[in-house]
Amino acid sequence: MMDELRELYQEVILDHGKNPRNFRHPDDANREAKGENPMCGDRFMVYLKLKDGIVEDVAFQGRGCAISTASASMMTEVIKGKTEAEAKALFETFHDLCTKDDHDHGHHGPVDEDAMERLMVLSGVRQFPVRVKCATLAWHAMNAAIEGEDKASSE
Amino acid sequence: MDTQITNTLAGYDVERVRADFPILSRTVHERKGKPGKSLVYLDSAASAQKPRQVIDAMTRFLEEDYSNIHRGVHFLSQTATDQFEEARRKVARFLNAPSERNIVFTRSATEAVNLVAHSYGRTFLSEGDEIIVSVMEHHANIVPWQLLQMDKGIRIRVVPVDEHGVLDLNAYEDLLSDRTKLVAMTHCSNVLGTVTPARIIARMAHERGVPVLFDGSQAAVHGVVDVQDIDADFYIMTGHKLYGPTGTGVLYGKVDLLKKMPPYQGGGDMIESVSFEGTTFKAPPARFEAGTPAITEVIGLGVALDYMEKLGREAIAAHEHDLLQYATQQLSQIDGLRVYGTAPGKGPIISFTLEGVHPHDLGTIVDQYGVAVRVGRHCAEPLMERFGVGATARASFALYNTRAEADALVESVIAVKEFFGA
């Protein structure tokens, strides 16, 4: 198997893709947004429980490829407990990770470095530009939910 | 040995055919110090590759004969006009149309459907009227009618398919009524490969005086289409799937229908005379060809049709059918693989899913082996819903594909399965 593929589909991704974490609809969620990729039909609902500016709970449901599912699953793990501002900064930083070379990464406020470390496994999508949408789909939905919108399209 | 024999099936020399397509000898995914993979192009249903003959003809035209057409008395204008109009005659012969007056050039099949929806639809349909389509239409044969629906308050009725993807003719008969004003149906599904019984569809509609439009974007590529035999009122195809250039679509229409349709777009080349008191329009097909068309591309399309005729359209169909059967049989041996579309007499298009693997992941991985397939919804979302599937992978076979390429597809899909432990 080619190196680039191993880089894209690391074990962690295959694991999260097969056994997504927080794959549920929390009863007490007070925000939700849909993320949809019209190209492939992937569709996620991201649910947030926001309280006093803190993401108390985050979960998702829907259908997607291994990359989009794994990314959504890992997102729920790193976003939980963050402030809205921290969650948005993680989104922006993660977006850079998927689309830009390291030296072009912008500063989007203080980010959880440990979280970014874990998300590094998804940086393989940079070699596969058409798959960037997959990796960022749930993140766009999460960002939309924080902003109080009900829908995000992966750009 | 085996491939040698089958590649010359019934005298069809696929290796000679492949030599006509420069792109087929390239490799993909070259990396530092590592050779690339041979291209295995199984996405011709999205767009077909072009033979040298088409590329050369377009280059030659641009280098030697290029000019605008239908105007000007100078030498080049006349030469270019002759070649453009010769392409129209070639298209007419390709479809067995009674005359080149039946042939309107558009930019795409999509534009051809929009032309009919806009010109015929807005003139002859009104609130409460119904258009019948099938559930397996490409979005290009759905959305233009929905725009008409928004504008005119018409209704769109949908003929279902069974689990094999066969059109339900009984349901079609039930849907036909006094309210039906047009039937707009695919002649070959771009997802399932199902070939619809065009002659029967047309006859049943004509018994009620209803005209029929066929979307032949796929059908015209894989079989012999005779618009007079089918008795189509409108027939649509697209040049880039017929081994011709992009920017070329074809609308065949019966002359009496075209004659009573108003222009679709206004501009140069479609008028008899223009004044601010009133403008008169040319007869079809010129009436529907406002503005400078894709001159070079249309001439290229004519050469592409020549190319298909020279190989023999029945020979092409037989070759593709062999590939379809072989590939279906080989793929079906893979555990967890499901093929969507098993209608008898289908075209060489195989949509499939692999249990436990999303088509998008499958597409990325087989691509690393050089195998180009389409993944996604194939611009046919209602059909995806019908089969309860978010997306599929689609391998489509063309006149230049080989059994060895079908083997490469199968091997790469097996690699995907191993990769995901599916």
UniProtKB/TrEMBL annotation, chain A:
Domain of life: Bacteria
Region called Disordered, residue ranges: 17-36
All copies of domain NIF system FeS cluster assembly NifU N-terminal, residue ranges: 9-91
InterPro entries hit by this protein: NIF_FeS_clus_asmbl_NifU_N
Biased composition (Basic and acidic residues): 17-35
SUPFAM superfamilies registered for this protein in UniProt: SufE/NifU
Name of the protein: SUF system NifU family Fe-S cluster assembly protein
Organism whose genome encodes this protein: Azospirillum aestuarii
